[in-house]
Amino acid sequence: MEVLFLPEFGQFALILALAMACVQAFLPLIGSFTRQPLWLAYAQPAAWAQFTLLAISFILLSLSFLFDDFSLAYTAANSNSALPWFYKLSAVWGAHEGSLLLWLLILAGWTFAVSLSRGLPAEVLARVLSVLGFVSVGMLLFVVFTSNPFDRILPRIPVDGADLNPLLQDPGLIFHPPLLYMGYVGFAVTFAFALAALWSGQLDSAWARWSRPWTTSAWAFLTVGIALGSWWAYYELGWGGWWFWDPVENASLMPWLTGTALMHSLAITEKRGVFKSWTLLLAIFTFSLSLVGFFLVRSGVLNSVHAFANDPERGFFLLILLAVTVGASLLIYAIRVPNLKARVSYSLLSRDVLLLANNLILVIASIMVLLGTLYPLILDALGTGKISVGPPYFNALFVPLMLLLGVLLGLGPLTDWKQMQWQKLKKKIWLAGVITLVLGVAVLPWVYDGQWHLYVALGLTLVLWIFTTSLRDLWEAAQTKRGWLGISRSRLGMFFGHIGAALIVLGVTMVSNYGEERDLRMQIDQPVEVKGYQFTLKELIHREGPNFIADRAIVEVHNPSGKLINTLTPEKRLYTVRGMPMTQVAIDWGFLKDIYVAMGEELTADAWAMRVHYKPFVRWLWLGALIAALGGVLAITDRRYSSKKAQEQLTAITKGSL
Amino acid sequence: MKRFLLFLPLIIFVLVGAFLYKGLSMDPSARESALLGKPMPEFSLPNLHDPLQQITQENLLGEVFILNVWGSWCPSCYDEHEEIVRMAQAGIPIVGLNYKDERSKAFRYLSQLGNPYSLVLFEEDGLRELAFNLGVYGAPETFIFDRDGIVRYHLAGVITPQLVDQVIMPEVRKWQTAQ
Fold it and tell me: Where in this chain does the record put each Cytochrome c-type biogenesis protein CcmF C-terminal domain (chain A) (predicted)?
């Protein structure tokens, strides 16, 4: 029982972290008003201390999980002594309290990383850390007062825990929340840079330059996080979908959309010094939407498959937190943003305008998702009943917007800043246009099943358009002395980002148009056929896992030419502690198609209702997201952010502007 | 005028915030419960009015009854209390489960609003008994148990007059007359 007091130390570290966050938030604030460099200098060590304390707190909570300390209410509700050790660890963020602590730790981690960045003037750094400190204070207050993971159940300590929700007992879910939070919280850094810029009034393009790598990293994390969540939903929930327009998914999609817009608009602001106030607003929007999403998920105002504990006290606290953070930042924005009249001009056909269009489309898409998500809430508040808008609403609005975005995406990289001659652009795109139209409209839609489909034509045309124009851009970039090796990482990053987007469109188009789902009765040794493939149930086995019992089916899959391609073993599990049934899907995966078998209900002793899916190209969805995120990574590692010379230049510029 | 436009995001946010605030006091529509058809979990909880009396599932079996989870801290519970009184007056046995509350506050609640419950169980914060095993994660929640103690209906959210007349009462009558 050497671990007896660990949670108390964790609690203590949490409270100290709150104190440090206060130091980090308030001292630089006062220092900047009274012009005291010493007070400003408190920000950095306070950020380090806060990070250390939160790490200690998090490690101690993890130890309580590892050592099965069920005297903690949180451990008892989310772990079990029979759980494998890695799920015990991931159970730390398996529910509300622990995931908040993870959120905070990640915020402190980002803050720590910012505090180490070279080349930032001390005053800017102090301001940025101060804003991050305020965010941290708010969230820490929330944790300490309403959602303390270190609460004990005394004196009646449960003998064993209630187990981690079986849905979360999955490798994908070990990584999904941390990646997602890295994304959400990463946008806090951009938010802090924007507020610090508003606060100081120095709205030159330096802040855009500083913000860019942070925004891109956050975006890359969020992209991977969302993709991982979608992949998990696909194979774990057992109904074969990859996106459900669930409020929680929407909560992650909204900041992703505005974050994508922000990434692009930071590029214009840095390169051309235009749209400054818009970019600032986007930075505030993006983090605000992360917080709104957080509120929607945690307060229980909406129904979702990801239900977290809903407790009115928490919801109220969160709403206040949201109101203060977002309200205050929008107020500061409205008061402080100067009436910037762009001194730079641009013509209607220019990269500037195309990027503005990109921004508008992404923001409209985001607002539309927000409206759709809040719709039941708004209707209910107006007293007209509880109706939610489902996938039809989202698809009807989202798909056309993304098509339009895709068309512009092809043009953007090939267009010059400021001004572009239509003749010149035409010369660059005609070949791509012809290839795209011929293949996309007349050839490819026939290939798969010999019939022409409008949606396939639209989707594939778009994919080809993005591919051909991106390749053309890359080819242009290679026309320097060093050839293909001379292409900068940020240019490559853009290429991969856009190719990733194209691959996502490819996956979505193929799986939504050619996918097939069938519910079938399978009896031992009686083959059934789906899309030419033969499925034969060979055997039914009963087996026991560490914390579940399972029925397992052995299904042989033969391809249309009669060759055995795989033996799939789907399972129906019953997690004994929670009495919760779970479907363990079996997938024969490939780049061209997934074959997906899930067990439904037992019909007789030798027959089960089974669900069989045929999912062409579904992998490309997640692969595309990974490639897009890789593009982000390439862009961050561009030499102009890391080389010493660039840093010195930047410092020189900043000093000049001070 | 231009300045005013800059305040537009703030104004929109305030509007959204107002809806979110309203949303807090409403409950999401009834969830389809995973508990339907499951037997009442074993438990042992004190009577709110008599701390020395322990009540177990044995004491409740034998008749169709409603279990209503409430707490004096829960604003929506005040809203639905009238409906609970109405159902009690219609002769339906209703067992209250006072959840995450304090005895004194619970007493005050009942003395102010009237006590429609034939019995109130008291599950202190941190106890892991009936509410925990029923998967309750907020209040109010309402269950109907049949004579054998099987969950036949589960509502997470506020009971409205329509729900009482169109769903809950018919459901109770159905299980009362079922053989």
Answer: 319-639
Chain A CB contacts of B9 below 8 Å: 281, 284-285, 330, 333-334
pLDDT tens per residue across span A66-101 = 988 888 888 888 888 888 899 999 999 888 889 899
The answer to whether A322 contacts chain B (CB < 8 Å) is: yes
- Torsion-angle region of residue B37: left (phi > 0), alpha (psi -120 to 50) or beta? left
Rounded to the nearest angstrom, the minimum Cα separation between B70 and chain A is 12
Whether the CB-CB separation of A504 and A624 falls below 8 Å is answered with: yes
- Total domain count, chain A: 2
Does residue A489 fall inside a structural domain?
no
Distance of alpha carbon A341 from the chain centroid: 34
- pTM of structure: 0.79
CB A370 within 8 A of CB A249: no
- Domain parsing of chain B, residue ranges: 30-177
Contact of A102 with A177, CB cutoff 8 Å: yes
Other beta carbons within 10 Å of A167: 17
Q: Which domain holds residue A45?
A: 1-164
User: Cis before residue B39, ω within 30 degrees of 0?
Assistant: no
Q: How far, in Å, CA of A228 to CA of A171, rounded? A: 10
B30-177: which CATH architecture?
A: 3-Layer(aba) Sandwich (3.40)
Closest CB to A299 among B2, B9, B24: B24
Q: Per the domain annotation, does A466 fall within a domain?
A: no
Angle between helices A206-236 and A619-636 (to 10 degrees): 160
Contact criterion met (CB below 8 Å) for A107 and A55: no
Interface contact A319-B13, CB threshold 8 A: no
Chain A positions touching B75 (Cβ under 8 A) are 312
Whether A339 and chain B come into contact, CB under 8 Å, resolves to yes
| φ, ψ dihedrals at A23, nearest 5° | -60, -45
The arrangement of strands across the sheet holding A593-604 comes to A516-523, A607-616, A593-604, A586-588
**Domain-embedded: residue A24:** yes
A642 pLDDT band, cuts 50/70/90, is low
Beta-ladder partners of A82:
none
Which of A17, A8, A143 is closest to A72 using CA atoms? A8
Which segments of A301-350 does DSSP mark as H helices, in order?
312-322, 328-336
Residues in chain A with CB shorter than 8 Å from the CB of B38 are 579
pLDDT in tens, A388-442: 566 778 888 888 999 999 999 988 888 888 777 888 888 888 888 888 888 888 8
Q: Residue A377: which of B19, B34, B137 has the nearest Cβ?
A: B19
Structure tokens, A264: 């692009």
Nearest to B28 among A284, A301, A316 (CB): A301
| Sequence-ordered list of residues with C-beta below 8 angstroms from that of B50, at least 6 positions apart, any chain | none
How many interchain CB pairs under 8 A, A with B? Answer: 102
Cβ atoms A550, A544 nearer than 8 A: yes
As a whole number, the mean pLDDT across chain B is: 82
**A290 and A325 Cβ atoms separated by less than 8 Å:** no
CA A80 distance to own-chain centroid: 29
- Asked if A320 reaches chain B (Cβ–Cβ under 8 Å), the answer is no
**What is the predicted ipTM?**
0.71
Pairing of strands B119-123, B141-145: unpaired
* Contact by Cβ (8 Å): A196, A210: no
- DSSP result, A187-234: HHHHHHHHHHHHHHT--STHHHHHHHHHHHHHHHHHHHHHHHHHHHHH
Coil, strand or helix at B134: coil
Nearest CA in chain B to A315: B24
**Positive or negative: CA dihedral B65, B66, B67, B73:** negative
- Residue A497, in any domain of the structure: no
